[in-house]
Amino acid sequence: MSLENDRPESFLGMMMALEGIRDGYCLVHGPTGCKYYPASVAESRFPMRGEEAQTRNFFSFASRYFFSQPRMPCTYLDMGRFVTGGGDRLEELYSKIVSLGPSIISMVNSPGASLVGEDLTSVGGEIPTVRIDHAEYSGTCSDGFQDAILEVLKVVKPELTERNNKVNLVGLSILHLNWEDIIEDLGSLLGACGIEINTVIGAGWTVEDIRNSANAALNVLVYPEYGDRVAEFYRDSYGIPFVDAGVPIGFSNLEKWILQTCEALSVSPEPALDRIRAARRKAAKSIGLMESYHMLPKGHTFSLMCDGSLALAATEFLYNYLGMIPVAVTCANGRDWEKRTLQFIEDRNIPCAEDALHTEAEIMLTSGSIGCSCVARGLVKDYVEMESPGTKYVCTRPEPPIGLEGTMILIDRVLNIVASRQRFL
User: Which of 9, 73, 203, 352 is the most buried (most CB within 10 A)?
Assistant: First the structure.
């Protein structure tokens, strides 16, 4: 049986980068088919842009350009407009968005509009405007995300006024699962060491944050494939060094992430390391209890279908800490990281497939939708949700997929899957 899943590509990554600006609006110049899904994703991933959530409302967003959705209005080009041009609709929609008072406006040509050469420079005004006439459609989601961030930085140029001792988090998007919880978790660890977050580049920042982003003393990568080129831009343009310690998940990786960040800022990492040690002790108690019931996770198999940098960090952790065996790895984003993951596995003489969608395993680390599909097909026994789209409609407590709390959640879910499966064998 063959199963293929659509994966986010550069066009969606680009639009999520533009939608990640809290006080901005992104419009799509193209047909409604290019608007509905990205607009729905933006609405669900980042509804709180002010004091109240922006949600689908027929009465508030009844305009022919919004089609009841609060995000990403479009010019709904049809066959006739592809022939005669849609400049008049673009101008009318741009004026409507101006009336909503955003600090920045982004315009993106849909694939069809870019193919026929629709001109985005025909409209504009005093509000800073980002114009992207085409995406690298064969690229990855992370490629498109970084492309868009760099375009934003060309329009709203960061201003170095006074260097502070804060950090920017780089390589995090609103598309990432529970991204706000990730910021809270990593911010708490950094805060324990007296380090403040200046801004999160690409996720929930404002135009003012963009201008102030050059004042940070350090950029710290979260998901490297979503921020390495952006970090290099800040280094080359504003002299801001960056730390690339991989995805902060797993005790050893977390310690490395904290140590390198604190070393770059010449501050003591001990307060954060104390928290990680306390978490280690707590996890050890649960693992010790499982050992008394002969239900250790050692030797159980897992597969991964997720971003490459996450795959490497999770594989290192599950193999080194829990003694689990990786059997398949598939990464749509971060192919270099995927190669490093496969090399890590090969160096330990473990046979590993590159097709997680067709390889049996006990546990799968992936998105909620793919995990549910693989369980339903009998490919895996259960899964751990690490990426979007998630399966929860409502989550009232923090559930970061990475960071210190994310590490504890991963251990908890893996141990519970192992315990529940062995208990009834």
Answer: 203
- In this prediction, what percent of the chain has a pLDDT beyond 70? 95
The single-letter code of the amino acid at 198 is: N
The per-residue pLDDT for range 57-75, each reduced to its tens digit, is 766 676 789 888 899 999 9
- The answer to whether the beta carbons of residues 129 and 104 sit under 8 Å apart is yes
Q: What is the DSSP letter of 307?
A: -
pLDDT confidence band for 423 (50 / 70 / 90):
low
**Of 6-10, 30-34, 194-198, minimum mean pLDDT range:** 6-10
Rounded to the nearest 10°, the torsion over CA 137, 223, 185, 256 is 180
Residue 86: helix, strand or coil by DSSP? coil
- Residue 236 is predicted with a pLDDT of 98
Tokens of 55: 């949600």
- Tens of pLDDT, residues 232-243: 999 999 999 999
Candidates 321, 312, 313; CA nearest to 343 is 312
Confidence of residue 422 (pLDDT cuts 50, 70, 90): low
**Cα–Cα distance, 46 to 203 (Å, whole number):** 9
User: How many Å is the Cα radius of gyration of the chain?
Assistant: 22
Q: What are the angstrom distances between the C-alpha of 362 and each of 91, 202, 297, 313, 359?
A: 54, 35, 11, 19, 10
pLDDT in tens, 341-368: 999 999 999 999 999 999 999 999 999 9
Nearest to 152 by CA among 52, 281, 20, 60: 20
CB 170 within 8 A of CB 220: yes
Query: How many other C-beta atoms are found inside a 10 Å radius of the C-beta of residue 359?
Result: 20
What string of DSSP letters covers 156-220? S----SS--S-EEEES--TTSTTHHHHHHHHHHHHHHTTPPEEEEETSSB-HHHHHHGGG-SEEE
Alpha carbon distances (Å) from 304 to 13, 234, 307, 330: 21, 32, 9, 6
Among 313, 365, 380, 367, which Cα is nearest to 340's?
313
Q: Which of 15-29, 126-140, 319-333 has the lowest average pLDDT?
A: 126-140
Tokens of 113: 């509009």
